[in-house]
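Figure 3 (text version): structure tokens given as input.
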């Protein structure tokens, strides 16, 4: 009950930062998961690295799709929690968990048998394809566990508890770091499994995370009152979760699809442009992590306070979150702008042309990092009010305008890859303007789900 009181009565800025910072750390740690796998497989050759790298886009796409449905659960939990309805919190958790696990089992079975077919679109080299198929199939086996842990995270985030998931993720990341080489190279009675061993190490940590999450949800530590009956799927709840979650799933998937389209566009301007684009977008992904943290904090606080019908406080929360996100990311943008060349040179030392091109890309987009922060907070606010379709359309507008600006400036206007670099700040500004249109309409203050 103390956590709920802080959400509804605590200092606003402190509440935003208290939720956002652990989320940012968790998202950063989950990125480290991928880096650890790459680090260890890099010890056995380029083919192994390629095998793991080819699997990531497929896993990321499905991961993005699942996030939408877990977000639906988080929104419902937040509004029920704000109302003080613990049974509603338990039922929202149980129904979301059952629905998402059912989807994950279907994905697991389909993905396991279609893994080789999907990967053949990306490579036909047997030295890469064979280990990639093993890695991806084992990753699909871990899907239900991964989705369960995501529900655990989203449920606790909905009631304002974000520190515990951080410690669970931290522990499993550390465990994964030590399990990877054991299964990769073999140890004692464990045979050397190569790339498949890295997948099995991740499988073990995913299972462990899911079991810990379920144990905590059933422990009544947070007064859920979660019962087995809450997991019996109810048609009305499935419709509600699907209506809220499917647009968010499309939103996340469209972002990853947009990246594919832009990569194809950049590839028409040569290898150097692709390499510069790859470096720049990786830097951008690290900027998106804090933006998403502030957005999720806004979703949690807005959802709880809307549920408690505290509209004045809700409005103050959104204004504060916008200011914090803008200032934080604008400062980050200034630092990235100043140190862009040093950052790129650290990643690709000695590559003079590549350093110059990637530095230019980063310096073109860095001044609008603050705009991204505002846009993400507004999207998080709309989601908290259940306006996930509006949020999806705004995100798709951002993806669409980036590609259209990029295509026009790079081809029709003759700016080549520099036109694609320019498309990012232009699209960020256009998306910011449209986000403010929906923000100032304040329909999100009037809509309630529960």
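Below: residues designed for each position.
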């Amino acid at each position: 009950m103390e956590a709920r009181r802080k959400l509804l009565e605590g200092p606003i800025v402190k509440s935003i930062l208290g939720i956002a910072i652990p989320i940012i750390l968790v998202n950063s740690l989950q990125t480290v998961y991928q880096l650890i796998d790459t680090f260890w497989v890099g010890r056995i050759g380029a083919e192994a690295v390629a095998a793991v790298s080819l699997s990531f886009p497929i896993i990321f796409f499905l991961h993005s799709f699942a996030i939408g449905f877990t977000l639906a659960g988080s929104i419902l939990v937040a509004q029920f929690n704000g109302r003080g309805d613990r049974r509603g919190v338990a039922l929202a958790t149980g129904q979301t968990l059952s629905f998402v696990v059912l989807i994950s089992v279907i994905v697991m079975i389909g993905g396991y048998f279609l893994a080789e077919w999907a990967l053949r679109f990306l490579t036909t080299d047997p030295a890469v394809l064979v280990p990639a198929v093993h890695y991806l199939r084992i990753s699909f086996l871990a899907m239900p566990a991964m989705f369960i842990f995501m529900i655990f995270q989203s449920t606790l985030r909905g009631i304002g508890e974000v520190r515990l998931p951080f410690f669970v993720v931290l522990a499993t990341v550390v465990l994964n770091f030590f399990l990877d080489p054991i299964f990769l190279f073999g140890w004692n009675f464990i045979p050397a499994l190569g790339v498949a061993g890295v997948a099995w190490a991740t499988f073990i940590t995913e299972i462990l995370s899911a079991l810990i999450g379920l144990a905590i949800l059933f422990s009544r530590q947070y007064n859920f009152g979660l019962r087995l009956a809450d997991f019996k799927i109810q048609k009305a709840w499935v419709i509600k979760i699907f209506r809220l979650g499917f647009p968010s799933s499309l939103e996340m998937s469209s972002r990853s699809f947009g990246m594919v389209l832009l990569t194809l566009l950049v590839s028409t301007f040569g290898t150097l442009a692709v390499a510069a684009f790859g470096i720049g977008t990786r830097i951008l992904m690290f900027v998106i992590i804090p933006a998403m943290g502030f957005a999720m904090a806004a979703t949690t606080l807005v959802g709880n306070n809307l549920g408690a019908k505290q509209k004045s406080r809700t409005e103050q929360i959104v204004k504060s979150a916008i200011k914090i996100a803008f200032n934080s990311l604008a400062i980050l943008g200034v630092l990235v702008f100043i140190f862009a060349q040093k950052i790129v040179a650290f990643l690709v030392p000695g590559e003079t042309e590549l350093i110059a091109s990637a530095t230019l890309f980063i310096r073109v987009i860095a001044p609008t990092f603050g705009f991204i922060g505002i846009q993400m907070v507004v999207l998080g606010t709309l989601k908290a009010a259940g306006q996930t379709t509006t949020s999806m359309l705004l995100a798709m507008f951002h993806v669409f305008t980036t590609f259209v600006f990029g295509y026009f400036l790079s081809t029709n206007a003759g700016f080549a890859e520099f036109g694609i670099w320019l498309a990012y700040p232009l699209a960020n500004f256009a998306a910011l303007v449209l986000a403010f249109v929906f923000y100032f309409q304040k329909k999100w203050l009037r809509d309630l789900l529960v």
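Residues 1-233 form one domain.
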